[in-house]
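Our collaborator T.R. sent over the components below with a one-line note: 'Predict the complex.' Nothing else. No constraints on interfaces, no templates requested, no preferences about which chain binds where. So this is a plain run: every listed entity goes in together, and whatever single assembly comes back becomes the starting point for the next discussion.
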Amino acid sequence: EDQVTQSPEALRLQEGESSSLNCSYTVSGLRGLFWYRQDPGKGPEFLFTLYSAGEEKEKERLKATLTKKESFLHITAPKPEDSATYLCAAVYAGNNRKLIWGLGTSLAVNP
Amino acid sequence: GAVVSQHPSRVICKSGTSVKIECRSLDFQATTMFWYRQFPKKSLMLMATSNEGSKATYEQGVEKDKFLINHASLTLSTLTVTSAHPEDSSFYICSAADRGNQPQHFGDGTRLSIL
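Returned assembly:
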């Protein structure tokens, strides 16, 4: 069964304490792996797309990487404003562009 | 770039009322738009997928006569919740995507409360 699993479910960091969020997937024919950030009461905000194993993308304190089984979102020296829920989603061949979503990691960064 | 505007952001209305939610892609052409529902502390649940000029494809368990979707142009899709009841209260979010495997870009959602 095609599935996306995120861990941990929740993460609390001190400001400046780097860490990584994990997104493992069992999807046949992956066509894209997406990372989003969602703040309470808002729609998801697009962060990155990764298309093939070995690919990396960076934006400010965030870096996303992809292997054949999982993706990591590395957060370097986080700030309180990085607090949000981070969602991972995958799209695979023949699925009419529908996303398979993970349940998200709720990140809290304490000042 | 890739801005999606969703309106209204919040609706409170009486049971039996029909409610229309608009989703617009402001700076790109959305060949496909998606409508989601999200419950508290849960992930997004896809309700339907619509391509411009075509009938929407609904997910299993979603009543097409209750949730009417229109995608009349490459920049506008609407979701109408007909004869809404309290159990329809939820957070509804739309997204839009360009061609191929381009990412979906999301609106800010509509909080629907049916009294």
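Summary for T.R.: The interface with chain B takes residues 31-32, 34, 36, 41-46, 49, 51, 87, 91, 96-99, 101-104 of chain A (CB under 8 Å).
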